[in-house]
Amino acid sequence: MAGQGVHNFSRFVHWGRNIVAVGRNYRDHCAELGNAVPTKPLLFMKPVSSYLEEGTGPILIPRGCHNFHHEIELGVVIGETCRDVCEGEVLGRVAGYALTLDMTARDFQEEAKKKGNPWALAKGFDTALPVSKFIPKEEVKDPSSLRIWCKVNGESRQDGTTSDMVFSIPHLISHISHTFTLHPGDLVLTGTPAGVGPVSPGDTLTAGLGDLLTMEFSVVQRE
Ligand SMILES: O=C(O)/C=C/C(=O)CC(=O)C(=O)O
Ligand SMILES: [Mg+2]
């Protein structure tokens, strides 16, 4: 496995930065949840308090959640300010990448969707954003062609490739930057491929990004 240059995430990505997440960015995931493929990126935010660095503790199922899902995603870490950037400039402003999980309280999200409410509780609880080590961009030959996979207790659940994104990384970051500025250290989650599904207390999630790294998290109920 490559990845000699990976580093502790918080050494490079400072807490207190924006976390922008993209939803419905893989056709197969749109289909599995019965959603139309969007015609422009669907964006939401996760709070910085949702970060969970690998090795610092378990993923906590939020109180009252009865349908808790994994979503494996490629995370893009911004290296230079992005404000009104064109697509051609984007990759030059990226610092690197991380493997992330957009943990989702699906029942909270369903309730919010029915009422037309935001997804903050469904996507923003403590530990809703497990992250791998940080991978400098020099380690990643082609971010538009990376395998991302996730297993639960050793059983394959998600196995996709970033080449299947509806909107590319340059398109997503350019699009975001025309509405709000992204700063160094901000993280963009790029959406999940098909295979999202439930996890329970006692489960172990393992996930991988190409031949760059793997990560592992356990799951417990928040008391
Ligand atoms: O619309 C839904 O039911 C669910 C959408 C998501 O959770 C979107 C994502 O976070 C994603 O596609 O990665
Ligand atoms: Mg997601």
UniProtKB/TrEMBL annotation:
Kindly list the residue ranges recorded as spanning the membrane: none
Enzyme Commission number(s) of this protein? 3.7.1.5, 4.1.1.112, 5.3.2.2
One example GO MF annotation: acylpyruvate hydrolase activity
Query: What are the annotated GO cellular component locations?
Result: mitochondrion
Q: Which reaction does it catalyse?
A: acetylpyruvate + H2O = acetate + pyruvate + H(+); a 3-acylpyruvate + H2O = a carboxylate + pyruvate + H(+); 3-fumarylpyruvate + H2O = fumarate + pyruvate + H(+); oxaloacetate + H(+) = pyruvate + CO2
UniProt keyword annotation of Metal-binding present: yes
User: What InterPro entries does the database record attribute to this sequence?
Assistant: Fumarylacetoacetase-like_C (IPR011234), Fumarylacetoacetase_C_sf (IPR036663)
Task: Look up the domain of life of the source.
Answer: Eukaryota
Give all residue intervals belonging to the Fumarylacetoacetase-like C-terminal domain: 19-219
Q: Which GO terms describe its biological process?
A: carboxylic acid metabolic process
Q: Which residues form a coiled coil?
A: none
Q: Which family does it belong to?
A: Belongs to the FAH family.
Name under which the protein is recorded = Oxaloacetate tautomerase FAHD1, mitochondrial
Gene name? FAHD1
